């Protein structure tokens, strides 16, 4: 029996069918047509370039084994990519065509499959090869959502603008929504949360999260591969485009240009754009003016450093999610010492938990201090007057309001004097400023308090113990 492309392929299919799930077989092998057999090379026609890439990535071994069985060790497989109708008159991909004799009438290209299990050259990670319509994988991280993005004064505007956008993408004046702020303050988290919520409410919308860095790489690749138009087209069909860290576009004129066009297209078509940046638009450098002005069309919302209360709730929420308990004073110690970066705060919590569980030691202040020092090594820890009052009032089991009150009760007066004493000792604040922060007293009161504490600790043993305990708590 003479071998034809069809018979060889049919035999391969029998083997393949035995080795994969029916679903995979139906999806990836039924649509293939055997088109040509010359010597030991079988040509198969696949519906798209993505299809080809998928086969190469997932089934190359199977194809090789089955084909070798049929045609011997020197078997070769040639893919013919038949462009789908939906691609209309668009230029076919050209990047992988070896300089062979391609029939010019056929909109197809032949690709030698070298059976090298290398990554296909241009892998668009966002495309799940589908035979009919291409789906775009959102690249969203469901762990970053609104539920676990805790609200505080520092993020209220950005968070609620994000919510508004998520509830009505493209339908608010926040387009683009630009979220900006320092490192580790939640830009990426919030950007994902918006996307996740949109996907939740509008599953049919195409949402894409991408870092500006990856966007740039893809763009450069597309220029190399001569398919810049495909790149642009890909981005133009998206309903909600989220680009993280756009400050990274600075100095990259080509990428900025292409982004400008994509942006305009999306914006004109009522699609939502969400951007993040570590700088406010005015401070962005080497970004074209026309792009900067686009960024300002919608709303720029800043994520600021969270206040003490917000830091405490972020820590507690994190501990709760991890199912870990931690004494209150340690939570406050962490919140008080790591202020400018939530990622570092989380990092410190994680190492604290790890240290204590590996070494079977309980989490105590001493361990917390060691770990915090690793995180804020170079900046000397400075305690705030706020924190001092908190520690002192906790120590005497009263609340801060009581400590600040006008009462003359002796133990409250003493607590207040101790707070003033430590504020003078441990901060650079002036007497006047200390006074005004601790119950609106004047500088003379603070001075008097410092002297009293000095005197009492020299004469009163019990009182000296208070000073020593508090000193430990505050400076350790
Ligand atoms: P950025 O992108 O601004 O550098 P991230 O979004 O990566 O910061 O945030 C750093 C870490 O802090 C993440 O783990 C994030 O979940 C957490 N985080 C930031 N803001 C909040 C918040 N408001 N509530 C809870 N976690 C937060
Ligand atoms: Mg980020």
Concise summary:
With 476 residues, this protein is an alpha/beta fold. It has helices at 5-19, 22-28, 49-58, 60-71, 156-167, 187-201, 212-224, 228-236, 253-268, 289-295, 308-322, 328-337, 342-358, 365-375, 385-395, 400-404, 410-426, 431-437, 443-459, 461-475; strands spanning 33-38, 41-46, 76-82, 108-113, 127-128, 135-136, 177-181, 207-211, 240-244, 272-277, 299-303.
What secondary-structure arrangement, pairings included, does this model have?
Blueprint: H1 5-19, H2 22-28, E1 33-38, E2 41-46, H3 49-58, H4 60-71, E3 76-82, E4 108-113, E5 127-128, E6 135-136, H5 156-167, E7 177-181, H6 187-201, E8 207-211, H7 212-224, H8 228-236, E9 240-244, H9 253-268, E10 272-277, H10 289-295, E11 299-303, H11 308-322, H12 328-337, H13 342-358, H14 365-375, H15 385-395, H16 400-404, H17 410-426, H18 431-437, H19 443-459, H20 461-475
Parallel strand pairs: 2-3, 7-10, 7-11, 8-9, 9-10
Antiparallel strand pairs: 1-2, 3-4, 5-6
Helix pairs in contact: 1-4, 5-6, 7-8, 11-12, 11-13, 12-14, 13-14, 15-17, 17-19, 18-19, 19-20
This protein binds adenosine-5'-diphosphate (ADP) and magnesium ion.
Magnesium ion binds next to helix 6.
